[in-house]
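Hi V.,

You were right to ask for the full record rather than a summary. Here it is.
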Amino acid sequence: MQIIPYAPIERVIRKAGADRVSESAGEALAEILEEQGMKISKEAIKLANHAGRKTVKAEDILLAYEMMQSHD
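Predicted structure:
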């Protein structure tokens, strides 16, 4: 099930320089972004829990993203 709507994904691809975007291209990018977003979110939740919080903050997301980038 796709969470991110097609229109914002299409805008991202167009902003990157595409003149036209197929629906399948938008769906493929949405799937990848959602998958990566879930991974980052899960790590951010762990960080928030470790800090004794139930609320995930921007700092958790950013740190989780940085941590994942260093593993690549």
